Amino acid sequence: MPIFYDAKNKSFTINTPNSTYAMYVTEYNLLTHLYYGERISDGADLTYLRHNSGVGRSLTYNEITYEDYEMKGHAKFCPHALRQEYSVFGIGDFRTPCLVGRFADGSRAIDLRYHDHKIIDGKPALEGLPAVYLNEGDKAETLVITLKDSAFELYVELYYSIIEGHDQIMRSERIINKTGKEFFIESALTLNLDIHKKDFDAITFYGKPNNERYVERTPLRHGKISVDSTAGSTGHFTNNSIIICDNNADEDKGECIGATFVYSGNFVTTAEVDHVGRTRLTMGINPTGFCWKLEDGEGFTTPEVILAYSNKGLGTLSNGFHDLIRYNLCRGKWKDSRRPVLINNWEATVFDFDEDKLVEIATDAKEFGVEMLVVDDGWFGHRDWDNTSLGDWYVDKKKLPNGMEGLCKRLNDEGVELGVWFEPENISEESDLYKAHPDYCIQIPGRGPMRNRWELTLDLTRKEVRDNIFEQMKKVISSCPIRYIKWDMNRNITDAYSLSLPADRQGEFYHRFILGVYDLMERIVQEFPDLLIENCNGGGGRFDAGMLYYSPQIWCSDNTDPVHRFKIQYGTSLIYPVSTMGAHIAYAPNINTFHHTSVFTRGVTAMAGTFGFELDPMHETETTKKEMALMSELYKKHYFTINHGDYYRLISPYEAQPVTVSRITAWEFVSKDKNKALFSMVQMDNVNDGGDLYVKLKGLDPDKKYKLHMYYENRHYKIKPFTPWIEDKDFGEYTGEILMKCGLHLNIFRGDNMAALIEIDAI
Known about the structure:
It is a single chain. The protein is an alpha+beta fold. It is built from 14 helices and 39 strands. The longest helix has 19 residues, at 509-527. 52% of the residues are buried.
């Protein structure tokens, strides 16, 4: 079995196909970490790796006598010296703690010791929380280690789950109070990983609205590198994922450890190097503003962290995350089925539309392969701008006189399906719902609210509020064959307070709000199991593994400009699969940046995502419509290679290149059977006569022969206004070995932001 307990050494070993995780229980019942790294053969005794030295002027646990300390070298049992498996506050470990709490007597010292353990088949669900799940036929094991405080009846159950064939370890905890009195949790992080070295880089993801999940890589140093959010959600500014890797690690080599939080609320992740050069990686709910009152007999479950190791670089780490998220976190029909190519009316119309205009957009867009129209913001209440009607989820008959049913029928008659936009978590002060229930929104008595886009946030900690919104949404979605909803959230949480919570539970608000969001989403998923949901948060703000449990795709960013999307989608792909990234061909010039890029470049970029359109076909020429039709055709043709194959980042858009070399970004998709591949590249800016380009492919079968067909842009200075057009040609036949060792031989384009796409098929 992949999880072993060695009773003689009191050690635990967790084996995945390519990694081993080990820990053991010391003579004082202290659970300590031994190893996380490359797979070790079954049955190996790793207890020799235990920490044997103190840290200087060491504090020691209370049962260690002076004689033991002096004669037996028990300074090694200083809490600050140990590689802890689950760190606590108050007894001498001065690094970042996982558990901080307050007993009824006001004391905060917690001393957890090994109590018992069990190894169970399967993987338990986490009540009220998204989590990795098992498909039919999946085999899994879970190790549950119970720790108990040395003085009080406070227990912590540590869960470690693995699924056969996957290298990830899923971790969570359950904190159980049996003290006879209340216990206040002030911090409850999920992940604690103590590593014996410090020579790592940290890869984190920063950003802002319209530029999310940019990559930042920096060497660890003594002290802490911390990334967090207190915005009520994952947020535009930071993402709740982290990678630590060897300083020289790249896509193909080096040790890497990655972690992502299956949660959508406030979070913190910290990489900390202590004074003797060890690294502690932590991740969990942000303790800022958090305090959970745990009554006697109650338990609190921490959200799940997905932890992974690779000794073959970032590419292997990413593809492991991609497969697990695609098949064991995303749920429902649409994780496997081909999703429709859609057009969203937002950039075409903003709020200014009616039924005829929407039908016109849909019918015109059919010419270039569109299968669904998504009606964005403005279809409900009397919503002519963003200052009104959120919370009034009924059709505006001035715009849609025949209701959603009439629009849907006209679209279906044209062979186009219907999708609809909602923003269920927020409310406008100018709305019928607010006038009837002003108490439904988050508010602090006696304090005026902070406003964003003239909207407030509903108190989804309250069941009656969730019930109201659910019933409104259900009525709309049930009214006609609506196949898709876009679930938006356009503000962060401020004025965090619930009129339904007592004063000593207000610290629970942020977490209870997220649990409320999950409950509302789960009810929609269960009521409409075939509905495709795309999550959105003012663009790509709430892009996290928690949301992917309810919606298999998330709008990657409101910035649809390929010049920026290269970096956004590259950063996102380090953890999240391409199948989760909402990406569209939008207007040129782009409405955000005014960059002008060709249909082909926009299309190649959008094909590294869920693919769709964000424009008005009436503004397109016959030429651009034909090019859009080609992009839709190519996307549908290669859908399963793109969305279910392995993804390789070949040339990074972040990569520094000499001024004499044209800047290139390139990526590749390879089917699991290695019979098909798709190569994509964009020349971001051109250095004239920069020379030939050679790009080595990855993931092919070296013994197979492949036929290549290339689509590319051509430009000529004699043709005004230098408009590019798409050409295609056979590109030769080569073995996988040659393509991976020698590479593709490409010419540098004469122009900026020009693309190429190469189909690669085994003969």
